[in-house]
Specification:
Number of strands: 0
Distance between the termini: 118 Å
Helix content: over 70%
Order of helices and strands: H
Shape: rod-shaped
Largest sheet: none
Strand content: under 5%
Number of helices: 1
Radius of gyration: 36 Å
């Protein structure tokens, strides 16, 4: 093996080691990024459920008020309908 070939082989070995090191760091960074991304979405989902749990009593109260108002309007429309029949 000539000195030029040996130098080229050593240079190639160094580049291969450097490339391997860079690729390992990139793979580790990708794994960390994926874990943080999953954690990010878990936090968002947990906060959404927590917000719903916090707001749920108010939502139930609004639904109750709405159903009571709807019942009152239905009763009023029935009475107005009866009153309209009386006028005819």
């Amino acid at each position: 093996m000539s000195p030029e070939e040996k130098a080229l082989l050593v240079k190639t070995a160094k580049l291969t080691e450097e490339n391997n090191s860079i690729l390992r760091k990139m793979r580790f960074g990708g794994r960390v990024r994926a874990a943080l991304h999953a954690l990010y979405w878990l936090i968002i989902i947990a906060l959404s459920f927590g917000a719903y749990y916090f707001i749920e009593p108010y939502v139930k109260e609004l639904v109750g008020v709405y159903s009571e108002l709807k019942g009152n309007l239905d009763a009023a429309s029935t009475k107005v309908g009866d009153f309209g029949k009386l006028l005819q």
